[in-house]
Structure formats: C-alpha cells, structure tokens
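Bug report (template v2)

What were you trying to do?
Predict the complex of my protein with guanosine-5'-diphosphate.

What happened?
Run completed; filing so the output is reviewed.

Input:
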Amino acid sequence: MPVTVVIGGQWGDEGKGKIVDLLSEEVDVVARYQGGANAGHTICWEDETFVLHLVPSGIFHQGTTCVIGNGVVIDPAAVLEEIRMITELGYEVEGRLFISHNAHLIMPYHKKLDQARERYRDADAIGTTGRGIGPAYMDKFARSGIRVVDLLDRDALRRKIESAMEEKNAILRSVYGADELDVEAIIEEYVEFDRFIDPYVTDTTAYLNEALKDGKRVLAEGAQGSLLDVDFGTYPYVTSSHPTVGGCCTGLGVPPTAIDRVIGIVKAYCTRVGNGPFPTELEDATGQRLRDVGHEYGATTGRPRRCGWLDLVALRYTAMVNGFTDLAITKLDVLTGLDELKVATHYGYDDKETSRFPSETQTLDRVEPLYETLDGWHDDITGVDRFDDLPDAARRYLRFITDAAGVDISLISTGPKRDQTIAGDEARVRVMG
Ligand code: GDP
Ligand code: IMO
Ligand code: MG
C-alpha cells in the first residue's frame, strides 16, 4: 500500500498539523521525515489546542502508529516534554511511537551555536527558531553528529561528546565570545535521556517497509515548507533540511516508487516567519488584518508572522518541485470581510514579465508581483463544511487557484478544528481542461 506525503507549499505554518491530524484517521502510520523542534504543528478540537514540535500529528488517533524518521534531528528535552504532555492527556504513547535509531540528536551546543551565530550575523541573520537545527545538520553532514544509536554505548558516547565539545567550546569562546558548556553535565543529561527513550527506539526504515509490505497506509508529515528547503527554497533564508518530496525518501528510507499521493498544504494567503524575500508581503493595514484575524504568530517562537497575498508564481514552482497531486487550501475563512483579494500570477522583473519563480534571493528581492484582483466575500464561512455553502466569490477564488496552479483542490479548511473542513468528493475543485 502506498505512501501519501503532506508538504507545506509555502514558507511553513500552512496548517499541516490540522490536515495531518484529520487524515490520520484513515491511515495506519504517520511519519515525520525531516526538521526538528523548529516545527510547530497545531491541532485543535473542541476547545483544546495542542502544538506538536517533534511527535507526528497522528498521535491523537489511538489506532495510528507514529514514527520519527532518521531524517529528523531530535531534541531530547523537546521530545520528552511532548511524550509527557500526550501521556497526561490520556493517550498511550509507548508502543505507538517509534524513533529511528539513526536519527541525529540536537545537543545543547547546537542550540547555543545557532543563537550565537544569529547574533554574530546581526543584520544578515536568517531569523532561525534558535532550536539548533542548522548546527545539528552541519554536524550530520560533517560526519561528526551524535545519533540515537550512540546512546547505547556509554563509553563511546562519552568519547564522542568530549571530542565534539572540545571543538564547539573553542568556537563558542573564541569566535562568538560566548560561555563554554559543561561536558559532564551534558553527558549526564544524555545518559538520563537514554533511559527514557529506550522503549521507543527502533529501526524505523525496516518498520515502515514491513508496514508497506503488509498493506498498511503510511502518511509522511512534512515540516516547514517547500520555500524553506535548503536546495529549492529562498537560500540562504531557509532551513537546513529538505521539506520537499525527496526528503521523504531520504528521511524515512521509503522508496520513491512507494509514493502515490503528494498533498500540498497551501494557506489561502501567504505568511513567512524570519527573514528573507517575500514578494507579496503586505506591510500595511491589510497585512495587519490578516495577522490579527488569522492569529499569525509563530507556534514555536511566538514571533509575528509576516503576511501577504497568495503567490501563485511560488505555488506553481512548489507544485512543480514536489509533483503535488492535489492541494489542501487552509484558512479560507481568514479572508472573509475583504472587499477584494489579490493574487500574484506573474512577476515583473527588469521591465519583463515572468511566470518563473526565481528562488535566488538576489532576483527575488527585485521582482514586482503582478496581481489579478478577485472579488472578496463578507458572509462568515467559519466551519462551512459543504462546498455549495461557500459564497460564489469564495468558490471563484478556489477555482482560480486550481487553474493557475494546475492542480486539483481536494480539501478546504474553514477553521482550525477538525470538523471545520470541506472534504471528500465535494471539496474537489478540478483543473479545467
Ligand atoms: P503548521 O506548522 O503547518 O502545522 O501550521 P501552524 O500550526 O504553525 O499554523 C497554522 C495555524 O492556523 C494554527 O494556529 C492552526 O490552528 C490554524 N488553522 C489551521 N487551519 C485553519 C483554518 O482553516 N482556519 C483558521 N482560522 N485557522 C486555521
Ligand atoms: P512548521 O513545520 C515556519 C523558518 C525560521 C527561519 C528559517 C530557518 O511549523 O511549518 P531554522 O530554525 O529552521 O534554522 O530557521 O526557517 N522556520 C519555519 N517557519 N514554520 C516552520 O515550521 C519553520 N521552521 C523553520 O523562522 O526563517
Ligand atoms: Mg507551524
């Protein structure tokens, strides 16, 4: 049975948590394949709201098993905190959550280096979440990372931490003028972590491939967004992993031939946290309105998100890179009350018009979005769960997106809660021949 991948189609925070939680009901396994606790995936039902950073968003469905794959960088403190929170809510976690033995660990020096480097870069800062993501992936690719499996051999673990810290402390001290970290305290903390994590650790690649062979359905949960991909995003203002579809294969060890559905999660407008180009950004009252109505404040850091119009040039690009088979449009309700809605269909650049998304920052900084203006609507659509109950203008907006992106819409979200969704065949907005 094949794999469905859920991928952020913009700069993250598109509502992946809500959609994965919803789709988890229909699958056997939900697996995170990249990123770390920089992610903040919000799940709401009734009056409860939960934010998950590392544990997959399928955990609130008792029949679903969750996997943290080898491509994720794991912060022990964050994962333990989440397991504790989910257990306290009355959900069984042990036996339902599996963590890859090959996943790399975020170490305290990764967080410290991330934050110190951001301060050092000053005006050129990326605006990272400060969760140690970049430095952890740097160590992974420099082949000096510490993996979950390393926790098993205490002597080897000690040697690895000591050797890593000799270098990291020197960098912290002499490059960044920051305080050094205490080696013994870190060894003690990670040995303690091993005791808690042991029941969850397994060879998740073998587990997932067995599950697929047994006909189980697997949902791969992307974190961040395609425009934050280290190769395909707005480099250098990106994260240090591959949120795009290839990251699913390398981050889980499932073959590309097992993937048969790639869902792009797309907010009905655009947001971005952190620095970097954002052609359709609105630094005016409309941008502030989107922020207020959409509660656009980071689920991980609480930072205000930058807001702007939907960018179809960027969406066509992320649809191309990922091969989106269908789209889930989220937060349509947030647009209610605007007289008109703009969507960027092309960019103007050096007196020319282009429909190509130039992911290189130098060009992207200089493009001028060219907009199509569509009618807005004023009827409150919060919680609407039938396509036909949407105002005409909202339906026209969705059809415009589908046609411009060249991808069908299969889900429409009209509120943060599970049931505030238009799903099934009636949500299907098809690309016109
Ligand atoms: P993720 O990182 O992609 O999972 O998204 P976040 O959880 O960081 O941010 C999405 C925010 O929008 C969360 O606060 C969700 O509860 C909320 N949300 C998701 N879908 C909808 C929707 O259709 N309408 C509204 N109003 N809020 C939504
Ligand atoms: P979810 O999964 C939005 C952004 C940061 C920063 C850049 C690099 O919730 O959609 P990092 O800490 O990864 O080195 O920061 O990436 N970023 C996100 N923005 N949603 C996320 O995750 C993000 N994870 C990282 O703000 O601009
Ligand atoms: Mg988020």
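What did the reviewer find?
The radius of gyration is 22 Å. Residues 1-101+203-433 form a domain with the Adenylosuccinate Synthetase; Chain A, domain 1 fold (CATH 3.40.440.10).
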